[in-house]
Design a protein that fits this description.
This protein is α/β, with parallel strands linked by helices. The protein is 32% helix and 23% strand. A hairpin with a 4-residue loop joins strand 6 and strand 7. Helix 5 packs across helix 6.
């Protein structure tokens, strides 16, 4: 079974990809398993650029096909911010909880009906030879008033799914993976990975 390097040092994200890409036909490996220690600057202006930068860097470093993603939360009342800067929102060195607080503060006076938001994820799959393929997924929701739930990470505790009445951090992991932006992008990525196994 060929090895697929998941270009992340985040153990939570690696575990999520193990579930999302189950039965994709590839053996998933982490940078740590291969002794690869890369700090890749995400200097792109879009999710696709950042995902490509990471995937290409890890593919070159490992000689393996590498998969990277970039994702963020887009809040309509903030003109789509924080978007591609979600992981760095509020400045360097903040925890997930502090970023969540900062975002809630920014929309504190926005009424519920204007708190629409979406999660967007773009996955890039790069070969050591420089070929890159992309997959994308989104999920629509709105911002809750305060954090709820303990599953997931990042902005999950304040991303409310109105039709479920729950935040993505309150969903069981299997359900979250099925409907999440990363889950939807991963479904497309699985199809790409299977095609690559067959040389197409």
């Amino acid at each position: 079974m060929p090895k697929l390097l998941i270009a992340t040092n985040n153990p939570g994200k690696f575990r999520e990809f193990q579930q999302l890409l189950e039965s994709c036909g590839w053996e998933l490996v982490s940078p740590r398993e291969l002794g690869i220690d890369l700090e890749v600057e995400e200097s792109g202006q879009t999710y696709a650029e950042n995902a490509r930068i990471k995937a290409e860097a890890y593919a070159r470093a490992s000689g393996l096909v590498a998969l990277a993603d970039d994702s963020g939360i887009e809040v309509d009342a903030l003109g789509g911010a924080p978007g591609v800067w979600s992981a760095r929102y509020g400045g360097p060195g903040l925890t997930d909880e502090e970023r969540v607080e900062r975002l809630l503060e920014a929309v504190r006076d926005v009424p519920n009906e204007r708190r629409a938001a979406r999660f967007r994820c773009v996955i890039a799959i790069a070969t050591p030879e420089g070929e890159v393929r992309y997959a994308e997924g989104t999920v629509e929701g709105r911002l809750a008033r305060e954090p709820r739930g303990t599953n997931g990470f990042g902005y999950d505790p304040i991303f409310l799914l109105p039709e479920r009445g729950l935040t993505t951090a309150e969903l069981p992991p299997e359900e979250k993976n099925r409907i999440s932006h990363r889950g939807r992008a991963a479904e497309q990525a699985k199809a790409i990975l299977k095609a690559m196994l067959h040389g197409t």
